[in-house]
Amino acid sequence: METLFKKIEDTHGASFDPTDLIRAAILNITSSLTLARKYDYDEEEFKQLVHSTDVIMSLFGSAGTDLMLKRLRLSPSKTDKIFKSAKMEYNSFIVSNIQRRKKDFDPAVIESLLDVYLKKVHEKEDLGPYINLDTIALLVGALFIAGSDTSSFQILWVLVYLISHPQALNSVKEEVDKVVGRDRLPTMDDQAYMPFTQAVINECMRLCAPLPMGVMHASSDDTSLCGYTIPKDTLILSNIWGVHHDPNIWTKPHHFNPSRFLDSNGQLVEDDNLIPFSTGM
Ligand code: HEM
After folding, report:
1. Is 145:83 a contact under the CB 8 Å cutoff?
2. Among residues 55, 92, 114, 252, which one has the fewest Cβ atoms lying within 10 Å of its Cβ?
3. 148 within ligand 1 shell (Cβ under 6 A)
4. 3-state SS, residue 225
5. Same-domain status, 277 and 220
6. pLDDT tens digits, residue range 219-260?
């Protein structure tokens, strides 16, 4: 966060597009939590990571369609090749960081998911047949891909809504100043004391869930749901956008109204119809 704030301060109040900065911050946080590796945004290795993520994310939709249509094609498509090359860059980034951390590993310093694994290996714990360096590398890659654009676009949408709703922006600022102040970074413990800010985040997740149809699933067996029969091997998508904009659930569903998540005392209310992380199916 300090790196992000420094970069924002460096703009000296001039207008700027925060997209690249927010995306870089999210990647850096992911890198730090998974691999204990924090970057300066100008480092070549980090720029490479940002580039590969961009390529993978921009091709995800078309590559997904390509994969579904694979049987119709005789030769690999151009998308396939670009996607594979970005994936290889990603793998080499993760593998080289794993090797680096492994070499310098200190069991007294546990800062990341990788460290937890290395510590267990160091303590000779039996991790079973599926947990090894290869699967840890796959897991780290999945966390990078699944967490980067979802989180950064959600933050960018919050900025968009706050900029276009100055009253809400002022209320968030007042709450942040009151609970966190200007001399420290927020922590998760602050969240409970910031109902309005949380309501704004909920409302932005309702209006602009980053994965409006979730990810593809399939039924592993014949089943039924709400009276509908779902045969084995049926493709299942969760219509998150539909639930979030259903006028039978939400009053004026297309309007930005954080108060819908607050009770008469200004306290946050849970709503089971808010499902930005999908339905848990
Ligand atoms: C605003 C932030 C985020 C939103 C709205 C979001 C939303 C979602 C949704 C809708 C799915 C599909 C779930 C399903 O259909 O079963 C998903 C899957 C997933 N998300 Fe997130 N996500 C966010 C951030 C993150 C972050 C920060 C991480 C990790 C660092 C992450 C890791 C994953 C993973 C690993 C999956 C795949 C789970 C599976 O394969 O079953 N997500 N996310």
Report:
1. no
2. 252
3. no
4. strand
5. yes
6. 999 999 999 999 999 999 899 999 999 999 999 999 999 999
Do 32 and 86 reside in the same domain of the chain?
A: yes
Q: Which of 5-19, 112-126, 172-186 has the lowest mean pLDDT?
A: 5-19
DSSP 264: T
Same domain for 132 and 216, yes or no, is no
What is the DSSP annotation of 31-87?
HHHHHS----TT-HHHHHHHHHHHHHHHHHHHHHHHHHTGGG-SS--HHHHHHHHHH
Q: Does some domain include residue 70?
A: yes
Whether residues 169 and 280 fall in one domain: yes
The reply to whether 260 and 141 lie within a common domain is no
Q: What is the pLDDT of residues 136-186, one digit of tens each?
A: 999 999 999 999 989 999 999 999 999 999 999 999 999 999 999 999 999
Does ligand 1 lie within 6 Å of residue 276's CB atom?
A: yes
Best of 200, 211, 213, 236 for a ligand 1 pocket test (most atoms within 8 Å of beta carbon): 211
Is there a single domain that holds both residue 46 and residue 128? yes
Give the position, in ligand 1's atom list, of the atom nearest the Cα of 211.
10
Which pTM value belongs to this model? 0.89
* Cα-to-centroid distance, 31 and ligand 1 (Å): 17
pLDDT bracket for residue 215 (50, 70, 90): confident
Cα 49 to ligand 1 centroid, rounded to whole Å: 20
